[in-house]
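Quick illustration, no need to memorize.
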Amino acid sequence: MWGSPAAGGGPADRGAALIALLDPLYRDHPHWADEQVRLRGMLDAAAEARAYDLRTLDRDRAGDPRWFGAPDMIGYSFYVDRFARNLSGLQLRLGWLNRLGVRLLHPLPMTLPQAGDSDGGFAVADYRAVDPRLGSVDDVRAIARDLHERGMALAIDCVLNHCARDHAWAQAALAGDADKRGYFRIVAQAEEVAAWEAGLDEVFPDTAPGNFTHEPALGGWVWTTFYPFQWDLDWSNPAVFREMLDVLLFWANVGVDVFRLDSAPYLWKRQGTASRNLPETHRLVAALRAGLDAVAPGVALLAEAIEQTREVLPYLEPADGSRACQIAYHNGAMAALWTALATGDAAPLVTVLDQTRLARPDTAWLTYLRCHDDIIWTALRGIVPEAVLRDCSAFFAGAGSYAQGRSFQARADAPVATVGMLASLLGGEGAATLARYRLMLGVLLALPGMPMLYMGDEIGLPNDEAGAAALDARWLHRPAMDWTRAEAAANDDGPGASFLRITRALIAARAGSPAFAAAAPARAEVTADGVLAIDRGDVLVLANFHDAARPIDRGGGRVDMLTCAPAGETIPAYGILWLARD
């Protein structure tokens, strides 16, 4: 457990900062005055209900605002049903994660999904209910309490941009409820749909083209950025903001430590634009942060903004200096790592790192190699030539390479996205695959930020070909956890053993070195011999993305933390060294 509770009560007006942020967005809305009263009452009620142990965490994290950037803070992302069947099973598997070195658990959507296809749970039918196949809210509360007692933390998704067609709000709108119709963007004329579409991109051009779905019961088209069964919420209505902040406060008081803000860039819509990453969206995210600060200031926000680097930074460091998200996915660094592996050139990674230095003391990047979604190459537009990005896409789809991934989909003018499990993208098995795994994981753990592992990667779990055939191609990298393979690997046996050995060794080495804290300095360059060098102060990381050995002109007198051997004059193909200064 962390510390003891904060003394004293809350501010006289908990909602002052929140209202100040929202007023420019809603001052002309006819119900804004009433919504301000509701917001203040909601904040006071949530603060009164916040438990003693959670207020303790708030107080302690106030003294350590980048707690999620500690060198031993390793995340782990997974689907509950794929990993452990249900929440009771997850509780039994916490020991596995603890021994691995994980301190932040991120189960993907657990809330009640719509019936049938729910886009992996991202079509939410009830934000305050857990899918009964997984368990209950009380099960989540018990897991959060258990994690806190272990010094661990819990992250969950908040699907902000859209809800399921099955959700009570959407069903009420379909039934003619005028109030709930106002929760959605409903367009009556085809000409107006075309005017909106002229500025918009398509997220799933192959499986869900367009951004609107005709609903006769609504008398027009409803905005559906992702799939026809996921209705975009209209955040220009202050009631929608209140409802979603209330969801965050509900789960914060259950014990959640981090909220992943799913599809954050899409919240605000404006005709004639791509309706992504607009200034109003940044203000909404800052307002959600202000609402949490009034009740649960120790809870962090994680921006899922899979965009070009310059579009992601405002979610962490808004231009007006306001406090917004504390963490954001470093999609650019992830894509640059894969580009380096395909081309041998780590210069784009250096460029991305130079462009993403964070100034605020309470922010950090979330770094990762794989997740439940596809690798989207457009994050590197303007940094890597388009032709190279297309070559990388083809490379990891197996075009004359060792990789066993698959193409997903993309707009005609963009490199096709890539799907596949980490081990499969690296070659599947064998000595070269393990060397590439050690290289990629070793660089990931050396980057500034909080690393997030993906379920099964620690034991080299391969693609799920059957899953991909049954559903969309992203299920290629959403397999069920193979516990037979995992338990054998824990006993140093079977095909997962070498992966697990590498994973545990790298995590343990990182956890014991303050040089890898998110706040510690980091400077990257590519040497004249094409070797990536990341200087973390007391540790110099050298990484060779080439398939042949390369000379190194630095590291003399240093010992490799990973092998306890002194540095030589060369680094092997796909080699990595963590050279300690002492």
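The chain is about 35% helix and 15% strand.
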